Amino acid sequence: MTFKMLEDATKFYKDYSKAIDFSTRVRSTNKKERENENRKYLRPRRQISQLNIGVWIISKVVLNHSHSCCPNQVEMLKQYRELSMFVRRTIKNNEEAGIRPSKTYQSFVAAARGHRELNFIEKDVRNYITREVRNGAKRERESDAADFHTIIPCATKSSIEAQFQHVYNHDKKVQAQFREKVNCITRSKHSALGYSVYEVVEQVSNSTFNKFAVTYDTSRGILCHHALSVLSFERVNKVSPRYILERWSKNVKRRHTHIKSSHDEPLLELRSKRFDELNICEFASESEKLTAIMHCAYDNDMVEMQEQKSKSNKKYSLSHEDANFEAINELQSPPHVRTRRRPKNRLGSKMENHIANASKKKKMKALSELNL
Description:
three-stranded antiparallel sheet
């Protein structure tokens, strides 16, 4: 049996190991006195060598396993472990909420009613968080920071795309819409109630065509590849700024949200107020008129706070001679410090100990009476 590439031999052996229910491992050896390279696949052993003509052959097969396999634990082998789409989505949401990976895995175990019902282990959850979630967020931040100061090249020669060249960035999907416009053909139209309806035919594959009824209205800011085909059919070279979608723009306006990841009520209240203030400032920055209103209200609040501060300083100013504790404002309690780990005295533990001691005394008394 010969293979043109080493990857073909690896795939063949992995399929064989999956059918026989055992795991595989690769061990490489490269002898200096020979030019060929040997790779051994263990459990059972199979030695694959490369000939001088560049073809890989199976030179040796050992059918005995290097260790005993348990058929009941076959699903825990590496090639059988996988994370479904629901599991990946739950892990990502829990990571954003600040939940520890161990707690996330325990929730899956509780939902499945046992470790044996899951086709993955806690190590797979941690590897997915490290490899996909955190690294993906880091790559997105770096790409957004780089794209904000760059100008993307136009994918087509459309004047509409050149109009938005300084607005969109690399990671968004606006260029895909201009590329997909090539597969669309606008055939007919009819007008009704002040707007036009076009029939757009899109070629999905060699033998598959989809028809779409596209309504063209200048007041609607929709810019997809079907609408671009209609604009090209009408020979429109420039569109209004309302077609700039916020979700694709560099200056995207994100609404701040607060995910409750703590049970400390005073801390939650402060964080909620902080996010509410961010939403107010972001809403005020959408237009110059709203910004002017926000600045006016901010200036009035600053003047009022300064007046209140000056009054309070005059009222509570004390000299060193007649200063006493009664004239000083009420001292505030120190900020609440959250404790780590489980508290020593759990709520209700004293009552449980009292009940346990009472029942223990009753049992001892009954045993003593029986002995008498």
